What we know:
Helix content is about 0%, strand content about 50%. The protein is mainly β. The strands form four sheets. Strands 12, 13, 14, 15, 16 and 17 form a six-stranded antiparallel β-sheet that branches. Strands 3, 4, 6, 9 and 11 form a five-stranded antiparallel β-sheet that branches.
Amino acid sequence: QVDGKHSLHVQLTGPDRTQVEIPAGQLRPVEPAGDRLVPSFDDAMHTIHDATTAAPGAPGIATFDIAGYTGETVNAIDVTFFVTAVHPEQLKAELVAPGGAPIQIRGHNQIDTDAQGAQVTIASDAQGALASLLKGPAAGRWQLIVTDDVAMGGGGDSQLVSAKLTLHTQGGPDKIAKQASWRSKPIDTTTQAIAIDSVTWQPRVPNGSSASVLVGTCQQADCSDVQWSGAVDPGKALGIVPGRYLQLRVDLTSDGTHEPELSSLAVQYRRNP
């Protein structure tokens, strides 16, 4: 929500009608397939002290501790924060990356009060000082620093009410395994399966992924002695080593982002009487 109150409460109701609130820290946007989102929240109230005639006031500081993955780097950043202030035009906001220096992301008349909040996006093609917030590691302590640095008198202290940091990252673990394999339960053909007339399936194979089907024959009921064919052409006949049991295998590959799947799989076989 942007206009109006900035609170969202989600409750889960069980079979006994008992309601349990889901902590805000466990809520996140739906993550696009090609973009890893790392959200963090600081909903504590932080006082932004009024500037004096001699110096800026002590800032309000929101802190975000990001666990991150080895090799995970920041590609873009979204920041949303809310303040209460008589004179928001006297406030500036800075973001600090782990081990970095404060970089101004909002200044004075760009900071709204808590009715609307301030929303900042640092895009992947950011230039100048903002670019220094990108390409570094996601893991570590991030801070949002909001300071009253305009000595006009009479404004009083302000409050940093809440803040949210969302990192768009790359280089973490694959969202989807790059290789996976599924095996059917052994099919008891009751005598000896001697040929495959056809294997058919309905795949969904996005660019960057693949799905292959193989047929195996076995003499043991658990198919511990399975002998696999090569990849099967859909709808075509296949010669096999005769066996009492059949097993199907689906080998899936992915580029780590696009996920293949099969919605159906069927085999027609011939066996000895």
